[in-house]
Amino acid sequence: MHQIPRLGRRLGTVIGSLLVTLAASLVAITSTAAPAHADACYTWGRTLQQGATGADVTQLQIRVAGWATSGTIFSIDGSYGPATTTAVRNFQSAYGLGADGVAGPNTFSKLYALQDDDCTPIHFTWGEVDDVCFGGWPAPVSGTSVAQVKANLMQAMWRAEAIRHRLGDVPLRVTSAYRSKACNDRVGGASNSNHLYGRAMDLVPGSSASTMCGIARASRQSFAQVLGPGYPDHSDHIHLGIQSSVFHSASQCF
Ligand SMILES: [Zn+2]
Question: Span 2-7, mean pLDDT?
């Protein structure tokens, strides 16, 4: 009869130590699973991996699109498939993180470090990509909106951030991105230019640390459309476009 209370005490001790272990685990989980957000832009609330879907996947895809497989179309669709796994793995590898293709606390921490409060990547600003003729955000051509233009430009800036890092963190200069209707009329631009929709960005070296061809080569992993030296009228800038078919042409470079 005396064994029951002894058993009870032993169980109590075991349960007590389990609770201590559990409490310690919870502290550990809390401190690693939900990294503090670094700014006013966006905070991920869960680890993401292949099979996940949702707006948080979309936010991740916008930021890793520049690390996709060269010559493929990377879809920003909120669905974490094999292409997203590859892009995350390439991103992790490029920034010295464990490259497992799973977006967890370390990956998110790096992304927080790379973005400003307004969600643009740290080395590019809205002021560099706004209307190339007049500055600011004059109305786009019909069929699109400033909000859509800015969403596209956000994607372009993150892809450019990847190019910049791939080249060894060298400065790059944007010479043209958004072109409003008034701007396009003024310069006599093509009626279907990606620049009208914020889907294109022209880059040149920002210092002697990079070359036109260096940028062109480094861009192939980040943009479906890459036009550079050797393509007509593209000897003095690299045109980068987000579009639904792959076209890379810079015969003097590759
Ligand atoms: Zn262009």
Answer: 46
Instruction: Name the DSSP class of 115.
Output: B
> Which whole number is the average pLDDT over 231-238?
96
CA distances from 229 to 5, 56, 67, 233, 250 (A): 86, 38, 23, 8, 5
CA 77 from centroid of its chain's CA atoms: 13
Burial class, 3, CB count within 10 angstroms (exposed 0-12 / middle 13-18 / buried 19+): exposed
Q: How far is the CA of 78 from the centre of ligand 1 (A)?
A: 28
More confident residue, 28 or 46: 46
Report how far ligand 1's centroid is from the alpha carbon of 200 (Å).
6
- Mean per-residue pLDDT, 62-83: 97
56: tokens are 């948080």
What is the reported pLDDT for 40? 86
Structure tokens belonging to residue 220: 């192939």
Q: Which of these is catalytic: 165, 195, 234, 239?
A: 234
- Measured distance CA(158)–CA(216) in Å, rounded: 16
Q: Which residue has the higher pLDDT, 29 or 102?
A: 102
∠ at Cα 163 (161, 165), nearest 5°?
Answer: 70
d(CA 100, CA 105): 13
Whole-prediction pTM: 0.85
Ligand 1 centre to CA of 115 (Å) is 25
State the pLDDT at residue 39: 73
Q: Is 234 a catalytic residue?
A: yes
- What is the CATH superfamily name and number for domain 38-119? PGBD-like superfamily/PGBD (1.10.101.10)
What fold, for 124-254?
Muramoyl-pentapeptide Carboxypeptidase; domain 2 (3.30.1380)
